[in-house]
Specification:
With 196 residues, this protein is mainly β. 6% of the residues lie in helices and 39% in strands. Strands 2, 3, 4, 5, 7, 8, 9, 10, 12, 13 and 16 form an eleven-stranded antiparallel β-sheet that branches. The two termini are 16 Å apart.
Length: 196
């Protein structure tokens, strides 16, 4: 099956702008040059039987220059699923604006889930009133937790996804994530469609 993704040219540019040492590690993991069998294998953040294009990946030039984050292109109202079991520690769903201007950042609706190893996963740009869980809820892997949107600092409707943890000194650190896809366990690449 063929598909077409229309994206601004700047979305497809090289991601060589980041000097974060994690960027090099991610590239080696994606190419299979180094192996990491110790990290958790996450579910894709959408329903079984669905597929979405990853329009921006780790350390991409557009807006992930220093972020090990992923952007899945999704229409408003697409069901978002938990990538891993955990407890909901923060939600925001009253944001009613979005656009390509930093002034919209405070309006970004989101869900943050803490996992058993104290890492956290975040889901951003959800639609207004699109959070389907509450702080303190325990969620299962694959459970529908929200609806995608375009709130906050967002050019078009999509799901911005990120996993992070804290080191022994309490410093925030990004965690590159492996996902179970229809073609096996993978570190995802930009401008590819992934099936669950």
């Amino acid at each position: 099956m063929k598909f077409f993704v229309f994206l601004p040219a700047f979305y497809i540019m090289s991601c060589s702008v980041s000097h974060n040492p994690l960027r090099k590690e991610v590239k080696l993991l994606q190419k299979g040059i180094i192996k990491d069998d110790s990290s958790y294998v996450y579910d894709l953040p959408f329903e079984n039987g669905k597929s979405y294009v990853l329009v921006q990946g780790y350390f991409s030039r557009f807006s992930h220059k220093e972020r090990a984050a992923l952007d899945f292109k999704m229409k408003k109202g697409t069901k978002i699923c938990a990538v891993r079991a955990g407890v909901v520690v923060r939600v925001k769903e009253d944001g009613d604006r979005g656009g390509w201007n930093r002034k919209y950042r405070p309006y970004g609706n989101h869900i943050i889930i803490q996992h058993a190893d104290s890492s956290r996963s975040g889901y951003w740009h959800l639609q207004k009133d699109g959070v389907l869980v509450n702080v303190g809820d325990t969620v299962k892997q694959g459970q529908v937790i929200g609806l995608s949107g375009k709130t906050g600092y967002a050019l078009f409707p999509h799901l911005h996804f990120l996993v992070w943890g804290f080191d022994e000194k309490g410093n925030w650190r990004q965690i590159p994530t492996r996902f179970q896809t229809s073609k096996g366990i993978k570190y995802l690449h930009s401008i590819k469609r992934y099936y669950k």
